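# nightly structure sweep
# worker-07 picked up a monomer target from the shared queue
# config: single-sequence mode, recycle default, output format = structure tokens
# input follows
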Amino acid sequence: MNIDWSTPSIGNEEKQAVDRVMDSGWLTQGPETKSFERELGAFVGNRFCTVVNNGTSALITALLAHDIKPGDEVIVPAHTFIAPINTILLIGAKPVLADVDPNTWNLTAESAKDKITNRTKAILPVNVAGMPVDIYPFQELCSKNNLPLIIDAAESIGAEYRHRLLGDAHFEHTAIFSFHIAKQMSTVEGGCIFTDKKDIHEKCRMIRSHGENGRYTYYGLGLNFRTTDIQSAIGREQLKKLPGALRHRHQCVSLYKQYLRDKFLYQEIPEYVTRHPHLFFGILSKERKKILSKLNTAEIDTRICWPYICNQPFHKDIFEDKYPISRKLSSEILTLPLSNLIPFEDVKKVCNIINKDAN
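# output follows
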């Protein structure tokens, strides 16, 4: 591609960090990971951080730590990446879909409220493109119904809700993050869980290592979700660069909106979101097929984030097609190139191609 959808931002600092670990003789989860957890905790304001091998593992760990069992219901948005749906299914629980807000593209507490039954055991909102859901109404809803709130913040590192970073211990919930290579900061593959509760934190650390607490002594169900010190060393360097990466992404999104003007609908950013981390930038258009054709001809990579869950080959027999807002978003959304390294000139090129011959 002439312009990639997302370009990895790995530099000499990360390479030197990997060399340091390789020379140390300790490559698996160890001292680098402990330092990474401390530094992540200091960054967001929460000492209860558990680093794992990817964001999906973080979701599974969080669900198990909150004692979600086969047959339990977990409310989740109908517009989402497939990971939260599959993790709920994987542990034998039932994902209960709720439609999203047409402007923010996120699940709302009001929408989730209508889905609560006596079998509901958790609510799991997803921050679309990294933009925070409205946390306080979810906290109130969960408190009233004695339910844990687990937020899929996989795309949200660095995001702020009412001037507080997501993951902050101030928020009385569990949040998971991903450090996949396309994220704002990366360990190539990785993730973490933040919680405000010590007991949930201790469960997460056991689940990460087969349910182990003490050598070869197992107190619960777990798997091998451990990371490596190689990945953690990369993450420590990436964390230092995160503020600059977020500034660059914000500038790129501002340019997209400036050059595309009012031709499209974009994700609405409410007043409670004091920093959107912009994992991706999406436009909504009924002319998506035509725009895709122009961009593909110019060898510009794009993504549809995300195809409608109810139409997925595996999932269409599990869920009824009754989420019109999510269906409409999936039929119109197109996400344009955005990364920590994309030049401003490339953003302008993308806009020029989209604007060419546009009505």
